[in-house]
Structures are given as structure tokens and as C-alpha cells.
Design brief:
The protein is mainly beta. The protein is built from two helices and eleven strands; from the N terminus they run ββαββαβββββββ.
């Protein structure tokens, strides 16, 4: 089915099935600009492999036009955009995954993360855990050891308001905890 637009709430009494080969996207080494590839990445699970990857989130746009413009299928609002990331191949050596928002992503707005990164030292001490609030950071970086780049790390972000990405990061790592925020 092609892209469809609805002007009111959509209700399903039996759920929605979002399935298919394109619902998971493997990320390649390099820098990915999500703003230029919204249909490729938004609402899907991105698989992080063992490489240096930078993922730049799109700018959060709040449609401040008339009520008719806000309800238009052509609204420019990005509120509700959601991205999920899963480490499917543990990072090794100096490989990292960096998630940028706002000016760190090269945008004109100071979008930030609000939420928590949970860390578990699953490799050598599974009982050792830590957490960090985002504190208004616009960058999250995971690595091969102490910042949670082992298989099973799962990160979700959602544009919830002007300049605010809600984030929940479940990080699996190995070693002394180090904050992933900057």
C-alpha cells in the first residue's frame, strides 16, 4: 500500500501489524542524515553493526500555522517521529555509534534528549548497573566497552515537543561505567 493520510484518529479494534523486511534497516559505517531519509528510518528498527556510525536525527518542527494547516496532510511537524536502534553485532576496538540531535546533528535548533541511559555490565559483572539522566545533552555515544556497545543494547527516541527528544537507552557493556552523554 502506498503512503496514506488520515485526518482524524484511526482506531483498530484488533491492532496494527507492522511487519515486513523493510521494518529493520542495517546501518552501514559513516554518517546518516535522517532528515533526508525519513521514510527509510522513521518508525523502524535500525540494526547497529561493528563500525563507526553517526546517526543525525532530523530537526524537531512544531507546526505553528492555522488549525487547517496543522491538520493538513502536508504539515511540516515532526512531532511523533520515532527511531529505534538495536546493537546486533558488538562494537569492537575503537568503533562507536553516535546519536546526535539538534546542533550536534547540524540542525538550526537546539534539540536535546530528555530521559535516562541504563547501563548493565553484562560481560563481567551482570549485577553491576548504573543510570544517567540526559541532563540536556544532544549527543549519546556508545563504544565497545564502558559505554554499552555490546549485543542487545536498545535505544529509542521520540520527538515529543519543541526541542525535546524523549530517550530510553538500555546499554549492555563491559567494564567501569562511563556516561554516554555529551
Amino acid at each position: 500500500m502506498a503512503r496514506s493520510t488520515f485526518s482524524g484518529p484511526v482506531r483498530s479494534l484488533n491492532g496494527f501489524i507492522t511487519t515486513g523486511n523493510n521494518m529493520a534497516q542495517s546501518l552501514s559505517a559513516g554518517t546518516i542524515n535522517a532528515a533526508s531519509s525519513v521514510d527509510t528510518y522513521q518508525g523502524k528498527v535500525m540494526q547497529i553493526t561493528d563500525a563507526v556510525i553517526v546517526f543525525n536525527l532530523p530537526e524537531i518542527v512544531v507546526d505553528t500555522g492555522s488549525d487547517a494547516q496543522k491538520k493538513s496532510p502536508n504539515t511540516t511537524s515532526t512531532i511523533g517521529y520515532e527511531y529505534s536502534f538495536l546493537v546486533t553485532e558488538s562494537l569492537t576496538s575503537s568503533n562507536t555509534f553516535t546519536l546526535n540531535a539538534g546542533t550536534a546533528a547540524g540542525r538550526s535548533t537546539a534539540d536535546i534528549f530528555t530521559g535516562i541511559a541504563w547501563y548493565s555490565n553484562s560481560a563481567t559483572d551482570p549485577a553491576a548497573n548504573a543510570s544517567w539522566g540526559s541532563g540536556g545533552a544532544d549527543t549519546l555515544t556508545i563504544d565497545a566497552t564502558t559505554r554499552g556497545g555490546l549485543v542487545g543494547t536498545y535505544i529509542t527516541v521520540k520527538a515529543i515537543a519543541a526541542n525535546v527528544w524523549a530517550i530510553d537507552a538500555r546499554l549492555n557493556g563491559n567494564g567501569t561505567f562511563v556516561t554516554p552523554w555529551s
